[in-house]
Amino acid sequence: MSEGVSAGERAHFDALESLYAAAPINRLFASRLEVIGVGAARIHFEVDDRVYHAAGAAHGTIYFKMLDDAAFYAANTLVSDRFLLTTAFNLLLTRPVKAGPLVAEGRWVSGKRRVLVADARLIDAEGEEVARGTGTFMRSHIPLSSLPGYAK
């Protein structure tokens, strides 16, 4: 168990990781969620030529998916009863990405009640930042416990 994390928080984090793995969209990508602690999450992702645009680098949808997921799950670590919804997301793409491993590091920034803000940065295999983003997430009416994969 992570230092400073209660058993209840760890159960919530494990359930979020299971929820990510169970989402149908994630069958399309070689990716894995790692919840680090309250307000922090990582998405480990493998890029290959199946996600390239016509000029031979990863399409922007890959950047968005990873950054949104990392920020979303960082925010959802603070909400244990409801699924969050992305209401806005801003991207800054700074470098093209070729095949290889990437990590999106998400962290909660502010808000705990109805709206939460989180950001994420995308890091390549050399440790260089290739993109960053900030998202706004709102509590939905969907109980986490009702979703396939979220099991406490």
Describe the structure concisely for a colleague:
This protein has 152 residues and is an alpha+beta fold. Helices cover 22% and strands 41% of the residues. The model has no long low-confidence stretch (mean pLDDT 95).
What does this structure look like?
The protein has helices at 7-22, 60-76; strands at 31-37, 40-47, 82-93, 100-110, 115-123, 129-143. The protein is α+β, with helices and mostly antiparallel strands and 152 residues long. The chain has a single domain (7-146), classed as Hotdog Thioesterase (Thiol Ester Dehydrase, Chain A). The model has no long low-confidence stretch (mean pLDDT 95).
Per-chain topology:
Elements: H1 7-22, E1 31-37, E2 40-47, H2 60-76, E3 82-93, E4 100-110, E5 115-123, E6 129-143
Antiparallel strand pairs: 1-2, 2-4, 3-6, 4-5, 5-6
